[in-house]
Specification:
about 140 residues, two-stranded antiparallel sheet, mainly alpha
Length: about 140
């Protein structure tokens, strides 16, 4: 019975990457891409108006950080259902970020196109990873 490797591929062993078993959440491509997205969010939010510091800036950063944090937390969970729960939380945070970036664009604070593209990669990886785990459960 195989599970997902963070790329959405099924493998013969839990948490594998192209080079073998992942020893840490940092080895997962999904986490790496999510971390890169967080860095992009920080770059965007540095440029938001000061009056958004405790509003949009804080909300977007919190939601963005939640994505790789939940991937990391789910990495060590032993049960497939627990892993899925944390991936689902990460997926919810990704959707929340998508809305905040749309708002950033519509308020004309910044052009979030690159961050939205990165987020789409993260969303796709999370979806594949979760699908592979669900398949392993059946």
């Amino acid at each position: 019975m195989g599970t997902a490797d963070g790329r959405g591929e099924t493998t013969g062993e839990d948490h594998r990457t192209a080079t073998g078993p992942a020893r840490s959440f940092e080895d997962l491509i999904a986490w790496q891409k999510a971390h890169g997205f967080v860095l992009a969010v920080y770059s965007i939010t540095k440029r938001l108006p000061r009056h958004e510091m405790f509003g949009l800036t804080a909300q977007l950063r919190r939601a963005a950080i939640s994505i790789p944090a939940n991937i990391a937390e789910g990495f060590k969970k032993r049960g497939q259902a627990d892993k899925l729960r944390f991936l689902n939380i990460a997926q919810g945070s990704a959707e929340e970020c998508r809305y905040y970036l749309i708002l950033v664009r519509d308020l004309q604070y910044a052009d979030p196109s690159e961050a939205l593209s990165q987020l789409e990669d993260v969303r796709r990886l999370l979806s594949r990873y979760a699908a592979a785990i669900r398949q392993d459960m059946s």
